[in-house]
Amino acid sequence: MKRIFLTTAVIAIALASCKVDTKSTNKEKETTTSVEKEEIKFPELLKLKGIAQNPEGIEFDKTDNTFLLSSINAGPIIKVNLDGTFKPFTSGEKFPLSTAGLEIDYKRNRLFAAGFNGTELMDNDPKTKGAAFLRIYNLKTGVIEKDINLSGLLPDASAYFANDIAVDDKGNVYVTDWYARVIYKVDLDGNASIFWKNKTGIEAGANGIDFNSDGYLLVSLLTVNGKGLYDNYGLVKIPVDDAKSASIVEFKNEGFTGLDGMVIESNGDVIGVTNNGTSPGGNTLIELSSNDNWKSAKVINSKSIPASTTVAITPSNKKYVINQDFTQPMKEDWTIEQIRF
């Protein structure tokens, strides 16, 4: 996910004594579960009022059908119900940090947040370089469990901006650093390392990222030029067991102009936010598909959306974007909008 003019920017069963018909009971449970799922009403638009969250990342939590929103303003991650009500969710940090990308690891009950020092990135002081952290929270309670400083792995970088997160099937976590132009890796024990440095020839930082269950990451490369438009963009496929064999995805048609936040869908396609090439706040949601395991790809769907950074997808494949406006960082009214192609 991105920054556009950050200088202007400062979510018991009771046992009966009689014999129970297990098959009948299971059928009733299945029916009830099915009905409950059908009764969930996913809104077209959620309106959030009364909080200067300045959210950059959005994630849908399928365990309780809520949205989680990060905070560039270094507030707590908030949990948003489907009716638009919300409350602070995360706690226990020793110090505040701006947060960008979010990722959930359901198997291990973890919520990940990409933490960065937004204040230092906006102070116009060349001696301050920001920071890159991986913050690991308990998914049920929101209490922080680990806070890992990643920027110390690369002391010579000119600046740091932890941006987006992916987790593989073994529980390894990958964090893009948009400014340092690397991807960090953190294993299950919390050991951090530099996983990948951009040597593709595309002069850009790693931004959006997601993991494909076939064993590789898809990563967007991106810069933002002086006009606030996407520049020097590309999409890279990186096998998690051989980062040196990373390859640039070739595009077979027009419509791909880089990606900010991105998500791999259950069918293997990619949904992501791009810029329309004409205005900093002009965004488009696009869908990419590949028939050769991401050696190449093409744009198969595209729709203009309000200023946004990334997308969240529900288990029923509903797509939501957080409508963002970096020019008004203290704005207290936000919307989460469902987008249909």
| CATH architectural category | 6 Propeller
In whole angstroms, the N-to-C terminal distance is 21 Å
Reported by name, the CATH topology is Neuraminidase
Low-confidence stretches: 2-36
Full CATH superfamily name: TolB, C-terminal domain
Overall, the morphology is globular
Q: Tell me what portion of residues adopts beta-strand conformation.
A: 35-45%
Structural class: mainly beta
Radius of gyration from CA coordinates: 20 Å
Number of helices: 2
Write the H/E string, N to C.
Answer: HEEEEEEEHEEEEEEEEEEEEEEEEEE
Q: What is the helix fraction of residues, given as a range?
A: under 10%
Report the count of strand segments.
25
Can you tell me about this structure?
- The chain is mostly beta strands and 341 residues long.
- It has one domain: Neuraminidase, CATH 2.120.10.
- The protein is 6% helix and 43% strand.
- It contains 2 helices and 25 strands.
- Strands 6, 7, 8, 9, 10, 11, 12 and 13 form an 8-stranded mixed beta sheet that branches. It has a 5-stranded mixed beta sheet with strand order 18-22-21-20-19, with no helix packed on it. The protein has a 4-stranded antiparallel beta sheet with strand order 1-25-24-23, with no helix packed on it.
